[in-house]
Amino acid sequence: MLSDNKTKESNDRVPPGQTLTQGFPVLHYGTVPYYNDMSKWDLKIFGLVEGDVSISYKDFMKLPRKEFNNDIHCVTTWSKLDNVWEGIAVSEIMKFVKVKPEARYVMLHAEEGWNTNLPVADFLQETSFLGIKHNGQLLTPEHGAPVRMVVPHLYFWKSAKWLRGIEFMAKDKPGFWERNGYNMYGDPWKEQRYDFD
């Protein structure tokens, strides 16, 4: 049982309307992509950059890795505290490109046609990264293997599974879930869950 101090500390980290879970629920729509030949995987960086970039899986896995610790909050009202990840800092990825000054937003492109949007400032935060492992284990396909974007300060749908592309844009536009009623930004502390008309 948690002590009163530990309970208070945890509650201070849980946004309104959320419930703690010890598990790691799997939520998605459609099929889960599985990779048999990693030589066909790459990460494309394009849009408002000085020259498009494609990083092979082999080269991606050679990039310096860091450990990241965070809490995650799903729009479906669960929160999971004290996650330990291993991944590539966004700052490492940004060494490959020069972003044009008019770029204000990013669209994250994933397998199966999934995408989600966020401001460049949020993408570039030190807490944002490209995850490879969660709690010491390689990500499973259901959780976004081989690479999942992780943006822990926003609802977890912004942490795109099965990441394949990063597009820099001048204007914001909705991704898959945003086109289907989810909030354009997704701040858990403001309960920015949905934007139904």
Record the SSE blueprint.
Layout (H helix, E strand, L loop, with lengths): L3 H9 L6 E2 L21 E6 L5 E4 H4 L5 E8 L4 E12 H5 L10 E6 L4 E5 H4 L5 E6 L2 E2 L9 E3 L12 E7 L6 H4 L18
Parallel strand pairs: 1-5, 2-11
Antiparallel strand pairs: 2-3, 4-5, 5-8, 6-7, 6-11, 8-9, 8-10
Brief account:
With 197 residues, the protein is an alpha+beta fold. 13% of the residues lie in helices and 31% in strands.
What descriptive keywords fit this protein?
6-stranded mixed beta sheet; 197 residues; Sulfite Oxidase, Chain A, domain 2; 11 strands; alpha+beta; 5-stranded mixed beta sheet; single chain
The number of helical segments is 5
Q: Give the radius of gyration.
A: 17 Å
Integer tally of domains: 1
* Corresponding CATH architecture: Alpha-Beta Complex
Going by helix content, strand content and strand pairing, the class is alpha+beta
| CATH class annotation | Alpha Beta
Strand content: 25-35%
- As residue ranges, the low-confidence spans are 1-8
What is the ordering of alpha helices and beta strands?
Answer: HEEEHEEHEEHEEEEH
| Major sheet attributes | 6 strands, mixed
Helix content: 10-25%
Backbone shape: globular
CATH superfamily: Oxidoreductase, molybdopterin-binding domain
Number of strands: 11
Assign the CATH topology: Sulfite Oxidase, Chain A, domain 2
- Mean pLDDT across every amino acid position: 92
Report the end-to-end length measured between terminal Cα atoms.
43 Å
